[in-house]
Amino acid sequence: MAPKRGKTYRTSSGQQVDFGALLLNNETVPALGNMNVNARGDEIAPDGTITKSREDIMREYNELNTMVPQDGAIPEGTGLEADDDWQDWEPPVTTPEPAPVANMTVPTETVTASVEEPVVEAPVGTNVGQQIAEQAAVEEKAKTPTGGLAAAVAAAKKPESNVQQSAQTQEKENPGVRRI
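Structure (tokenized):
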């Protein structure tokens, strides 16, 4: 009895076909298509000679595509000198502005602050708190977004329900005497 090379199949006409034996017999035959390989996967020249074997192709592929990263050494420096001016840099000092005082009437001709704060001059009887509040309201109004086209369309339209109720629901909601 001959050794079994692969699984044998029976055709509709009753013949036995061994695909394993067919593959082994036709390994060196050029494959169909434009890849220039034979049935094994070797690269072949137009005249049919093998230029690169399947094992060489697989070895190259596995060297390039490994699961373990193969990075080179990390360079210590780029050779460029850094600008070290940042060590002497200090952030600018900002003085906090005083909080506005609401509804305060200034009784004197001028109001002066400490040496660090600016001088505020206001005529007698001027309500400084009210002026500050008005200015804050104007700034707040300028910051408020208008909403855009979508907000305008949404504000103009109110959704209406198109759902039709069944006859039974309409009868239940109908006021008046009902027949029991």
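Helices lie at 19-25, 54-64, 128-143, 149-156, 167-173. Strands lie at 8-10, 16-18, 43-44, 50-52, 110-111, 120-121.
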